[in-house]
Amino acid sequence: MILIHPPVTKPCEPPGGIGKLYGALSHHRVKCGVLDVNLEALLHLLAQPKTLMDTWGTRASRHLLKHLALLKSGQGYLQMDRYKRAVKDLNHLLELKTCTMGINLGLADYEDKELSPVKSRDLIRSAEKPEKNPFYPYFHHRLLSFLEREGGSIVGFSVNYLSQALSTFAMMGFLRRECPGIKIVLGGGLITSWMKRPQWQNPFKGLVNELVAGPGEDSLLSMNGVNGPFSKNHYTPNYDPFPFKDYLAPGAILPYRSSSGCYWNKCSFCPEKAEGNPYVPISPEKASTDLQRLVEEVNPSLIHFLDNAIPPALMKTIVAHPLGIPWYGFARVTRHLADLDFCMALKRSGCVMLKLGFESGDQNVLDALHKGIDLKEASRVLTNLKRAGIATYAYLLFGTPEEDLTEARRTLEFVVNHHDQIHFLNLALFNLPIDVQEASTVETKDFYGGDLSLYVDFEHPKGWHRRKVRQFLDKEFKRHPAIASILRKTPPIFTSNHAPFFVRGELRT
Prior knowledge:
By secondary structure, this protein is α/β, with parallel strands linked by helices. The chain has helices spanning about 15-25, 35-45, 55-60, 65-70, 80-100, 120-130, 135-150, 160-180, 190-195, 215-225, 270-275, 285-300, 310-320, 340-350, 365-370, 375-390, 405-415, 465-475, 480-490, and strands at about 1-5, 35, 105, 110, 155-160, 185, 210, 255, 260, 280, 300-305, 325-330, 350-360, 390-400, 425-430, 430-435, 445, 455-460.
């Protein structure tokens, strides 16, 4: 069996999903090879000579190796200006490599001007002509040599983002042509979302042998002749095959997920709820045991919790049994974080940053969205985290049906009032998930115009359309001095994945 992580995603840590799959397969002694094509293909493309260069590209090319080394060193995170130059130079080099192909490529981006990842016919076109993919010079040799070395008759691709879709199909088309006897399996978060749509019909018959929705451990074990049932089994992730030294991070980042789904599961417009994804946690004790084992095996510089929200019960377990490694992840704004002593204990346990989805600074909007957030309590949370020395990465969402300019300005006011307690900001425009129950309350229209689109455009009930939201963000919100200062501190492209390295006092490497 071969598991493949396709491009493009941020090349700073191994994929947690494949780590979990490999853990299950290796537990049952199923021979399995793992290939991080995302990391290898991006580094391969950066290393290729390019004749078409602008002044910026020529300078960036001279410093390529220096920039790569900088991002793998703790020294690279001491000065934001040096860091930004390295990241932006690398990103620009990737742009130059593909600009004549009609493709906008970056360290975390892949956009084809002719092909759309939300149109099944375009994905099939990508599979039919893999040589048009910018990574073809890399993968047409690498895939065949890897298959020859590892053996196996099943190749699985894990696709979580639209930026991975077109290249995944190019690789599948190549394998189908060169190795027609290979069984191709397709899974991951994006595939799960497609398959859970009510009107889903598989458009990829003949190309893909099996599609897997949700966690893939049971399906892959069955395909490899391991008899079930497995539903109650828990497998510790295994990251042995991943080249931690090659990722663009100052030391190994260990991804870990203690649950699938969301323990709150009440928010309006939530895709998780619309897809019917259940909340399935690992017990805090098992998670703690996993993490202690993985820390010994990987010796990470940072632990990245992948949960939609870290359960408070797990936080308490980590406080009681510290991991000795800095960690971060998403958390809900809850009464636990409104307790200063608890925040202090989190800090002592290694917590360096929490990502908090405030979404809005208007209480009526939060109530209408069923976020379960009280802004007075949120203020206490921000104060406590600041006092404890835990950085806050605040996530805001503009353009929801409940919001207009007045409410957006209240969000601006909330951020300004807490600007000294918010370290980083993520600003997003609301996209209406296509199958949520609430979509029936507004007038909708095609957004991307693709049969695989997960979002629709809508007529905003208050006239607060995307163009107006963008104008507000660009001309008012981002220009406020207090907010502009926060945005300048936010790492470009790698954003929250690299942010913890800018707030840590010491860095293990």
